[in-house]
Specification:
single chain; about 450 residues; mainly beta; 5-stranded antiparallel sheet; 4-stranded antiparallel sheet; 4 helices
C-alpha cells in the first residue's frame, strides 16, 4: 500500500469530552432477570462504561494493555451510516480499578460516519485500531482504515503513530476491465456452485416446504446479485480483451463493488507472524480476510466466503494449525451461526455451513483460550437480542456443552433490553473480558450504554 495515502486523512488531536465522572452502578428493572445476580461471590465484575444516555452507542471493542488497563472503544452519534456525526469514542479502566474514565475521542473522519471499531494488541505490543468511515451514507461505500500506537498506557486516548487506508484489491489486475478467467470471478463462482450443492444435498433437507420456497427465492436473487457484482456489471466502461499481444476493444465491467464496501467487526488473529483480519461486505453479503506479514505495509486477500450471506467472522485456532471462522447469518430463516475453515493460514476458505447454534442475525464474537478451548459470546436466540450467552467448546466447535447466561431479560424481544454485538478476549492472566451494547427498549429515556464484564475463566466451565 502506498504510504502517501496517509495524507488523505490527518491524525486528529486527542480530545476529552466533558462527561460527568462515572462510578459503577447496577441497573435493575422490575421484571428483568439478572443471571449474574451476585458478581462478588463469583469474582465477576460488571459495569456500565458510562451512564445511560440518548446517543446511539454500539459496536464496542476492547483490549487489555500490558500495564493491566482495559481500553474500550465504540461508535457513537445520532445514528449509524446515515448520521455524519458518528465518531469512534473510547474509555479506559485503569488496572485494579472498577470505574471508567470519562469518554474520549479515538477517531473521527470529519463529516463521515465512523463505524465498528476493532482494537487489537499484537504480540509485539503494538495497539491497532481498525474501523471504517462510510463515504456515501450506504454500507456499500465503506472504506476500512487503521491506526497503530506504541504509546497507549497514559490517560485518555492512545497517541497514534501511524494511520492508513486498507485498500482491498482481491482478484487479478483490471486496468482495462475485468478479463475472462479473472481470479475473483472464478472464486465467486466456485463458492456459489459448492454452496448450491450443499444447500440441495444437506441444508434444506430438513426445511418445511414454506422454508424451502423462501430459501430458493433468496438464493436465486443472491446468486444473481453476487455474480453480477463480481463481474463489475454495475460499472460497465470502455475496455480491452487481451489475447497475447493483441486486444479487442469492448465494454467491460470494472471492480468497484469488490474494492469498496468492506467493513470491520471482530478482532484479527496472528498466525505464523501474519495478521489475519476478518472483513465483510453488506453489498456482497459475504466475508473476506485481509492478511499482512509486514505490519500493514502490504496486504493480500483471501477468496470470498459466499452462499449463506455470512458476515462478521470471528476466527478460532485449531490445534493442528487450521483456522475456523464463525459467521453471522444474514440470510433467510432458520438462522444459524455459520462455520468456514481454512487449512493454509487464512488464504483459502471453504463455504460456510450452518452449525446447530442459533443466530438472530446479530453480531457475536469468539476467542481461543490459552488452553485451546473455544469460547463464544452470542445471543442464543433465533429472534431477538435479550439474552447474552457465553458458550464453551472443548472439541473445536463440534459440541458446545458448557453454556452460561451472562445477561437475560425475561420480558422478551419486544421490550426486553438488548445485550448485543459483544467483543470477547482473554488476558495474559487467563481472565475473560466481554464488552457489549446495552440498549433498553421499554421506553426508558435515556436508554443506551456500553456494558463490560470481567469473568474468571472457571466461570465458563
Amino acid at each position: 500500500m502506498a504510504h502517501n495515502l496517509n495524507n488523505r486523512f490527518s491524525l486528529l488531536c486527542q480530545t476529552t469530552m466533558s462527561y460527568l465522572p462515572w462510578v459503577w452502578i447496577a441497573v435493575v428493572l422490575g421484571c428483568q432477570a439478572d443471571p449474574v445476580s451476585d458478581p462478588d461471590s463469583m469474582n465477576v465484575e460488571q459495569s456500565l462504561v458510562f451512564p445511560l444516555q440518548g446517543d446511539h452507542v454500539h459496536g464496542p471493542t476492547l483490549a487489555v494493555l500490558p500495564n493491566g488497563d482495559v481500553l474500550a472503544a465504540w461508535f457513537q452519534g445520532s445514528g449509524e451510516r446515515w448520521a455524519d456525526d458518528v465518531r469512534i469514542m473510547g474509555a479506559r479502566k485503569e488496572a485494579g480499578d472498577t470505574t471508567w474514565s470519562a469518554p474520549f475521542l479515538m477517531a473521527d473522519v470529519d463529516g463521515y460516519p465512523d463505524i465498528n471499531p476493532v482494537l487489537y494488541l499484537d504480540p509485539q505490543d503494538t495497539l491497532w485500531l481498525f474501523w471504517y468511515p462510510v463515504l456515501a451514507n450506504q454500507w456499500e461505500s465503506s472504506i476500512p482504515m487503521y491506526r497503530k500506537s506504541t504509546n497507549y498506557e497514559g490517560s485518555g486516548a492512545p497517541t497514534w503513530d501511524w494511520q492508513d487506508i486498507l485498500l482491498v484489491k482481491p482478484g487479478d489486475k483490471t486496468e482495462r476491465g475485468i478479463q475472462a478467467g479473472d481470479r475473483f470471478v472464478r472464486e465467486v463462482q466456485k463458492q456459489l456452485d459448492a454452496y448450491e450443492s450443499y444447500a440441495r444435498e444437506e441444508l434444506v433437507s430438513g426445511y418445511t416446504s414454506e422454508e424451502q420456497e423462501q430459501y430458493w427465492s433468496f438464493w436465486e436473487q443472491y446468486a444473481r446479485k453476487v455474480d453480477s457484482l463480481a463481474r463489475g456489471e454495475n460499472m460497465i466502461r470502455k475496455g480491452r480483451i487481451y489475447e497475447g499481444d493483441t486486444y479487442t476493444s469492448t465494454p467491460l465491467g470494472y471492480p468497484l463493488a469488490r474494492r469498496i464496501g468492506w467493513q470491520t467487526k471482530n478482532k484479527p488473529v496472528m498466525v505464523d507472524g501474519r495478521l489475519i483480519l476478518p472483513l465483510y461486505s453488506d453489498g456482497f453479503d459475504a466475508s473476506l480476510f485481509a492478511l499482512t506479514a509486514d505490519g500493514g505495509r502490504t496486504w493480500s486477500f483471501s477468496n470470498p466466503v459466499l452462499g449463506g450471506a455470512g458476515i462478521q467472522a470471528t476466527i478460532m485456532k485449531k490445534s493442528n494449525g487450521g483456522l475456523v471462522a464463525f459467521l453471522r447469518d444474514n440470510g433467510p430463516p432458520p438462522k444459524r451461526i455459520q462455520r468456514t475453515e481454512s487449512h493454509d493460514g487464512g488464504m483459502t476458505w471453504s463455504i460456510a455451513r450452518d452449525t446447530d447454534l442459533p443466530n438472530s442475525g446479530a453480531g457475536f464474537d469468539g476467542v481461543t483460550l490459552e488452553n485451546g478451548d473455544w469460547v463464544l459470546a452470542y445471543n442464543d436466540l433465533e429472534d431477538g437480542r435479550y439474552d447474552l450467552t457465553i458458550a464453551l467448546s472443548k472439541d473445536e466447535g463440534a459440541t458446545w456443552v458448557h453454556k452460561k447466561v451472562l445477561e437475560h431479560d425475561d420480558r422478551g424481544n419486544e421490550i426486553g433490553t438488548s445485550f448485543h454485538y459483544p467483543s470477547i478476549i482473554q488476558d495474559d492472566n487467563g481472565r475473560i473480558h466481554v464488552i457489549y451494547s446495552y440498549h433498553m427498549k421499554d421506553g426508558s429515556n435515556p436508554s443506551k450504554s456500553i456494558k463490560y464484564a470481567s469473568l474468571p475463566v472457571e466461570w465458563v466451565y
